[in-house]
Amino acid sequence: MADIKWIKIATDIFDDEKIMLIEASGDDCYAIITVWFKLLCLAGKQNNGGIFMLNDKLAYNEEMLATIFRMKATTIRKALDMFEEFGMIERIEGVVSIPNWNKHQSLEKLEKQKKLRNDYMKKYMKAKRESEKAASKNNVNINVNANVTKMLTDVNSLEEDKEIEEEYKNKNPSSSKKECEGTTPTLDEVKLFFEEEEIKIDPIKFFNHYSSNGWKVGKDVINDWKSIARIWNNNFLKSKSKQEDQSKLEDWQKDYFENMMKEFDDNEE
User: What is the gyration radius of the CA atoms in the chain, in angstroms?
Assistant: First the structure.
């Protein structure tokens, strides 16, 4: 996922009670405030929902943050302890995250995703309430987490389609229909290419997907379907790696969505 080029900072941030308390905490107060701004910038650069992960399996620890922030580990440790006490960050099983990260996102990114996420949040909350109602009525244990996981998958899938389109267009400038004649592959050609390149996704699914829309990305005719296949494969491998690590973050995922629901309800009011 592309990084956020800038983050939203309120002009009255130094009037915030938490920042004022930090300023009054001692001689190293401005070093601690610097840590906070560096955390915000890192979160925007990673664009991972405010979760600080070096990769899919490794979370940033105090020593790693000290290295990349070029600061003392003792300062990082003191800052994180203070941020956690003030509710500015959360630490769950060693993973540091910023609650309600959306309020720190760039307005451009937030506006692009706002309608999509709000629509899915409404659907999620409706499904959750119906599940709870059914569980109460029938006295059965319904796994609401399945709805959460599906909702995350749906939202990420729609955003991923847009990213595939943007990535492809950056590598392959739009071509006219005439220039693209003869580039549409057969299913056998797709299967052979997938086998030679060791592409892990289903060639039939890939072929059917683009056959159904006339072999287009957005409004443009595809002039390099092999490039699209490689993008699909890279995204699939990333998704598979995340799924393998999903169980470790299941509890955090539930808490995160509950916080999103509360924030959404507050905004609706």
Answer: 23
* Coil vs helix vs strand at 91: strand
Task: Please tell me the predicted confidence (pLDDT) of residue 263.
Answer: 58
Sign of the torsion formed by the C-alpha atoms of 151, 231, 113 and 110: positive
Burial label for 17, CB within 10 Å (0-12, 13-18, 19+), is exposed
The segments of the chain whose pLDDT lies below 70 read 1-5, 102-124, 128, 135-183, 242-269
Between helix 225-244 and helix 145-171 the angle, nearest 10°, is 150
For tokens 């443009």, the residue is 220
* 244 class by beta-carbon count within 10 Å (0-12 exposed, 13-18 middle, 19+ buried): exposed
Are 89 and 39 contacting, i.e. CB atoms less than 8 angstroms apart?
A: yes
Three-state secondary structure of 167-179:
HHHHHCCCCCCCC
Residue that is written with structure tokens 């050609």 in the block: 189
Cα four-point dihedral sign 101, 251, 142, 149: positive
Q: Are 192 and 141 in contact (CB under 8 A)?
A: no
Q: How far apart (Å, rounded) are the C-alpha atoms in residues 266 and 269?
A: 5
Q: Which of 143, 188, 17 is nearest to 86 (CA)?
A: 17
CA 23 to CA 14: how far, in whole Å?
A: 9
